[in-house]
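Appendix B, Record 12. Input sequence as logged:
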Amino acid sequence: MALSSKTSWAGLVRRGPSIVRRLRLASGLVLFSYIFLHFLNHSLGNISLEAMEQGAQWAEMIWRSEIGTVLLYGAFAIHLCSPFGRSISAGICGWAGSRLSGSASVC
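Logged structural output:
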């Protein structure tokens, strides 16, 4: 199917659940699990230092494995790039896109 000049990418994105939405959801869940485990490790410090060190070993074993590293960095890249795709598909002008990239670089 060839896209004509009148067909916009925004129309293609709005046609129900797309792969973009699923990728955003999956990347958000991966980042949430990373942050949850990070804060869980901090809370283990309230129990004892040994529990915190053991929790850090488990988290390191999960996130520093090859699969964990690819998942974490891939989720970060997808989540970082998702607002830019949304702004292009929504038809936001270049000036607003540059403000969006400037705000993303501050974080």
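Residues 87-96 have pLDDT under 50 and may be disordered.
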